[in-house]
Amino acid sequence: MFDEITTFSFPTRIVFGRAAIRRLPACLEETGVRKPLVVTDPGLRASPAFDAVVSVLKEAGTSHEIFDRVHGNPVEDDVLQSVAQYRAAACDGVIGLGGGSAIDVAKAVVVMARHQGALADLEAQAGGMDRMTGPYDPIIAVPTTAGTGSEVGRSSVITSHQLGRKIIIFSPWLMPKRAILDPELTVSLPPFLTAATGMDAFTHCLESLTCPTYHPLCDAIAIHGLELVIRYLERATRDGADIEARGNMQVAAAMGAIAFQKDLGATHSLAHPLSTAFGLHHGLANALCLPAVMRFNLEAAATHYARLARLFDGADRSATEKDAAAKSIDDVEGMISRLGITRGLRNHGIPHESLETLSVSAFDDSCHKTNIRPCTQADLLALYEESWR
Ligand SMILES: [Fe+2]
């Protein structure tokens, strides 16, 4: 027992609460940033969240620059253009404002502002982590969705022009110095995006809980994250102005991302190619594939799933572990349906003839390697088939 040495860390300082954005000037001062570059996307530029950030900066008299051209699936050009602006304006820190995309670009900006080579050099699976020798300028993350948890994560996903595919950059130096979670900044997120991003957070919690890596701290965080999503995601989707639900979903999303430093599972391997090949929203892709993966994992993950069933209201505490585990799948499917998500990849523009090719990409994706039940490519194809119907 405990022969293997493991390390645990939860270092991001999170500033959470209604109007927490008012603490932005203090966060900049504490981290030594005098001239930040605000990195965001065109949709957010027109939103009240953007206005709130800029008015706080103006009120504090903080000189700042704005880059507002981040793509939904960020590309290398987003990074190169914002780095050029960052250098030209002599910025000394970034504020990533938006969903995971803007925050991911913000993370890459501080690295590329210093790195002499290409973005592709930094790819995690090509040994990029060793080429990132921080510390870099501080990153302040201000999420406006509650799902990816990039605000507490140490990775960034960008499409490399050179390689023509998404690459993952991973380093402890990419961890934001501050994450400001202000539920008021998420109230304008429409119901579909609230539901889809929330299901991403749910999947992070569940896949990290079930993955076999030993990390009891992450497990406890994952369980509470699941509980929060079960209690608040439907509320936040129904009524975007429900601050209690919005705030708890922000916390759940951060908890999901903290938990998945443990690792993820097969649902994420199935979801990634669906977004790359067909532009399917990442959270939606997870929601559509998760029930099939749960059925595949049922026996191996019975203890975890039985625990999940008890987090849903009305679970029968006298049920056997096996029955409770099976019930959890019905509970998850019920929640997805109440969120207004129509089941079946076929209903979301995924052609049946693409499943074989998708399964090749899913097998290449590393997430399934930490699935609680090992997967072959044939298993992943069968999971796509089941999720398609
Ligand atoms: Fe995810």
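^ fe (ii) ion complex. The beta strands are 13-16, 36-39, 65-67, 93-98, 139-143, 155-160, 165-170, 178-181. The pocket of fe (ii) ion is lined by residues 200, 204, 268, 282 (CB under 6 Å).
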